[in-house]
């Protein structure tokens, strides 16, 4: 994988926060912290897109004929089955 060097500008507050993360031992250097933040943002984007797709699919599926109680029971059965 090719790496690309970037230069960024931070506020003093941002820089202090990054230093504190490194000083606490959570990260060993700036690059490690930034890579982790980017991975987390990428994962969050994937999760949001997955949720958005599920919501759209649910909306397109139409209304359910089941009662709220029936839906709750089905969810509970599914949770028990998956446990």
Walk me through what this model shows:
Helices cover 70% and strands 0% of the residues. The protein is mainly α and 83 residues long. The protein has one domain. The two termini are 39 Å apart. The model has no long low-confidence stretch (mean pLDDT 95).
Which tags fit this structure?
mainly alpha, single chain, 83 residues, 0% strand, elongated
SSE inventory with pairings:
Layout: H1 12-23, H2 30-60, H3 68-82
Counting DSSP H or I runs of 4 or more residues, the number of helices is 3
Largest sheet: none
Distance between the termini: 39 Å
- Mean pLDDT across all residues, rounded? 95
Beta strand %: under 5%
Structural class: mainly alpha
Please give the radius of gyration in angstroms: 22 Å
Total individual domains: 1
Q: TL;DR of this structure?
A:
It contains three helices and no strands. With 83 residues, it is an all-alpha fold. The chain has one domain (12-82).
């Amino acid at each position: 994988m090719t790496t690309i060097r970037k230069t960024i500008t931070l506020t003093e507050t941002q820089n202090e926060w990054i230093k504190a993360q490194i000083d606490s031992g959570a990260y060993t250097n700036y690059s490690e912290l930034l890579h982790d933040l980017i991975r987390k943002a990428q994962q969050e984007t994937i999760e949001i897109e997955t949720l958005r797709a599920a919501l759209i699919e649910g909306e397109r599926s139409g209304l359910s004929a089941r009662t709220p109680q029936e839906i709750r029971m089905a969810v509970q059965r599914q949770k028990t089955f998956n446990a």
